[in-house]
Amino acid sequence: MDASSREVLYAKNPHAIRPPASLTKIMTAVLALEKADLNDVVWVSPIASARTGSSMGLVRGEALTLEDLLYGMMLVSGNDAAAVIAEHIAGTEWDFARLMRAKAEELGLENTGFMNACGLPAYGHYSTAYDLALLTCYALENPVFARIVQTKEKTVSGRRAARTRKLVNSNKLLWQYSYATGVKTGYTSSAGRCLAASATCRGVTLVAVVLNSSTTYEDAKKLFEYGFAGRPATVKADPVSP
């Protein structure tokens, strides 16, 4: 998808309903940036620190800035960071999911539902490659989001527990593809391996979304090369009506 025009350049099953895994956190980041201040100091609750799945290692009673939590959520996919952000903005993760659904409706994501801030499997939590591409294009218009998701490594420190963490971005495309500029990886057993990626070449920014693939990075690179070249490379595009 062309990030400026939202034109679909290539697609295969773009509207198939799929669990989005941690690509969910793109929406969580969008709401955090729109509804809170990066300098907010946020305390980690017992509920958030106990969130299962991928983690940035938060401990109950620890305090971090919202900005550092965003790095922890987007670079190492911390479910705990997503829960802390959700609680900070809406009081509970359940109430935050209501905001997520409202934002999805505002953005015209017609085949998307959110039930939590991190992307763990849940009934009613779903999206499509097309909707996630639209969401990613919108998110990249925020310069802070764009800066965070293209960061390869970041060191953050807790305010109370005095823990220093080195975060390394899980998006290997940033190292493998010279034009890559982000965005987010994801995985659950039901979703498979997922990737929402962005790349910029000669002033043109493209977004690629790959869901349930064992070769996400290779697929994304092929999509980008196809889009930047303006002609088929090693894949043949299916006719699509976005």
Q: What's the topology here?
A:
Elements: H1 25-35, E1 41-43, H2 46-49, E2 63-65, H3 66-75, H4 79-90, H5 93-106, H6 129-140, H7 143-149, E3 153-157, E4 164-168, H8 173-176, E5 180-188, E6 192-201, E7 204-210, H9 216-229
Antiparallel strand pairs: 1-2, 3-4, 5-6, 6-7
The mean pLDDT is: 93
SSE topology string: HEHEHHHHHEEHEEEH
Oligomer: single chain
Helix content: 25-40%
Q: Which band does the percent of strand residues land in?
A: 15-25%
**Dominant shape:** globular
- CA-atom Rg in angstroms: 17 Å
Spans of at least 5 consecutive residues with low confidence = 231-242
Main-sheet strand order equals: 5-6-7
Distance between the termini: 10 Å
**What would you call the structural class?**
alpha+beta
| Strand segment tally | 7
Number of helices: 9
The biggest beta sheet is recorded as:
3 strands, antiparallel
Describe what this molecule looks like in 3D.
α1 packs antiparallel against α3 and α3 packs antiparallel against α4. The C terminus is likely disordered. It is globular, with a radius of gyration of 17 Å. β3 and β4 form a beta hairpin. The strands form 3 sheets. Strands 5-6-7 form a 3-stranded antiparallel beta sheet, with helices on both faces. The longest helix is centred in the middle third of the chain and has 14 residues. The chain is built from 9 helices and 7 strands, in the order αβαβαααααββαβββα. With 242 residues, it is of the alpha+beta class. The chain is 36% helix and 17% strand.
